[in-house]
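[#protein-structures] MJ: dropping ABC transporter ATP-binding protein here for a structure pass
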Amino acid sequence: MTSAVTITRHGGTGGTTAVAARARQVVKAYGSGETRVVALDHVDVDIARGQFTAIMGPSGSGKSTLMHCLAGLDTVSSGQIYLDDTEITGLKDKKLTQLRRDRIGFIFQAFNLLPTLNALENITLPMDIAGRKPDKQWLARVVDTVGLSSRLKHRPTQLSGGQQQRVAVARALAARPEIIFGDEPTGNLDSRAGAEVLGFLRRSVDELGQTIVMVTHDPVAASYADRVLYLADGRIVDEMHKPTAEAVLDRMKDFDARGRTS
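AK: finished. structure tokens for ABC transporter ATP-binding protein:
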């Protein structure tokens, strides 16, 4: 069975939305023979440029695997992954590493900040390693967007959890990547700090034109997205545009009910 999802922008003038990344007939399997487990089962999906996409599904549905494959962090068993027009599934390790560094941003549950560096140094670290100078105007805009202007000289231990994750968000944005992937980026935050970070992610899409893909289990987090993809058993089984927390929660309850009766 093929899982096929196409992108159209709802509202506005209509028409097809530009695609930042896409998967074609992607299969990801672990093991072989009787022990073979299929994490992704012939997935077709387009990720719209300049939009915020959330990926949801029950535990073991393949949502994190899909994100890791789209981001070039994991290999596929078969099928193709494209970043814009570049097929990343055929790239050698060195080229793939360069592509991830130059064109993709990452935000994870763990903030992954270096304790010996201040906020600004943590934000520019990936570019420093790559030998690239940040665009000062863009960097200032990013810092202002995430509300860190007064905290740039503070080290991680001097920042709250929400502020540390905002540093991580700014770090992902600072290099102007084509797409940012977030794996449960608010999973380690309380509800107030999580709302702050999600608000900044939303603003980065609306005000900076960023493309974001986020894996989450939280209906409230998903409600910040333009579109929610639902995975079950390694397939995309549904999608929702302009989600609300209540609508997402109801949809997840449907999955839970199906799981109990299947």
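MJ: nice. The chain has one domain: 50-72+90-261.
AK: one more thing. The chain has eight helices and eleven strands.
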